Amino acid sequence: MKQPLLVFNDKGIYCKQADVYIDAWKPVDKCIVTHGHADHSRWGHKQYITHTNNVPIIKHRLGDIVVAGKEWNETFTINGVTFSLHPAGHIVASSQVRVEYKGEVWVFTGDFKTENDGLAQPFEPVSCHTFITECTFGLPAFKWVPQNEVFSDINSWWNTNKEEGKTSVLFGYSLGKAQRLLKHLDTSIGTIYTHGAIENMTEVLRENYSFPATVRVTRDTKKEAIKGNIVLAPPSAHGGTWIRKMAPFVTASASGWMTFRGARRRRAIDKGFVLSDHADWNGLLDTIKATGCDKVIATHGYTDIFSRYLREELGYDARTEQTQYEENITETEQKLDNVSG
Q1: I need a labelling partner for 166 at 20 to 30 A (CA). Which of 4, 135, 177, 299 fits?
Q2: Where are the membrane-spanning stretches (predicted)?
Q3: Cβ neighbours, 10 Å, residue 173
Q4: What mean pLDDT is predicted for residues 289-315?
């Protein structure tokens, strides 16, 4: 039996021929990193390879690391194996990894979304024989509405709160979701304030991306100044002492999980906006078809249900693999978000 081009082991996704890992979750010698979220870009690797725009992101998060930046579609060869990075559309500088050896092509998506959010490089399907896909939202219940409708609702919510003399507190992860929200907020309504973790990351990203002006919330920020405006904060800030100076306030969360009302209740959120940085059910299926692949490996998400549907309903050679990636915020990211800066 021929050795698979990529295998899953206790450290991550491994290419034996090249002796390279992709998004390894334990320290390895050489690792290709798809994007800057803490569950995919771990500390401790001897050498990192990632997209050029992701270099400042992971340096900000991981410190003094040895890292090489690559451009989209730039090929690089390691021990006869050809690699290249392609836009994943998940968050800023997120990549899919194409791996080719002796005519066989595999693609690992990392995390991805198919809607062009106007900030991340738009997703591009990549032809392959074997496709390793996330399925965070791999259920038919998850079908996103166009983001312009969601942002219209968010800005209308903010404006209504302002008219009622309340501050709008909108939760989103400090890397990716926060900047997507920032990019599409209507600054004519008022001022955008930010939690320190979001402000710190946004400062890093301003080197390569354009965002509206923001004001960092500090200990010296007066409640009267914030009133009626909007505050972007990470989920970890909810329920802490930090948020008290926003009163009177209304809270909201922007997440694909807001599809289910129970998720909003569990998080004690006043309002939920369904806005995800991952592909929905149709996005997953359309992407698999666009790759022209024969084999599919489903990871991190509704893997069993999704792979069974691919096998029984669509005829793919589909299976699952376990990873240590989580859509929800990781312990490392929680610590970063708790730094108010």
Answers
A1: 177
A2: none
A3: 26
A4: 97
Q: Give this prediction's pTM.
A: 0.94
Distance (Å, whole) CA 174 – CA 335:
11
pLDDT at 327 (0 to 100) = 52
- Strand 20-22: give its sheet, edge to edge: 7-8, 13-15, 20-22, 30-32, 47-51, 67-70
CATH classification (class only), 7-142+278-337:
alpha beta
Q: How confident is the model at residue 338 (pLDDT cuts 50, 70, 90)?
A: very low
Peptide bond between residue 235 and the one before it cis (omega within 30 degrees of 0): no
CA angle 280, 281, 285 (to 5 degrees): 115
User: 42 φ, ψ to 5°?
Assistant: -90, 155
All CATH 3.60.15.10 domain ranges in the chain, comma separated = 7-142+278-337
Average pLDDT taken over every residue of the chain: 93
C-alpha of 21 from chain center: 20
CATH number of 147-273: 3.40.50.10890
- Other CB atoms closer than 10 Å to residue 299's CB: what's the count? 22
Interstrand relation of 95-101 and 81-87 (parallel, antiparallel or unpaired): antiparallel
Report the alpha-carbon distance of residue 113 to residue 283 in Å, rounded.
7
| Assigned token pair, 330 | 């990781």
Q: Which amino acid belongs to residue 272?
A: G
The pLDDT tens digits for 280-293 are 999 999 999 999 99
User: What's the CA gap between 113 and 59, in Å, rounded?
Assistant: 24
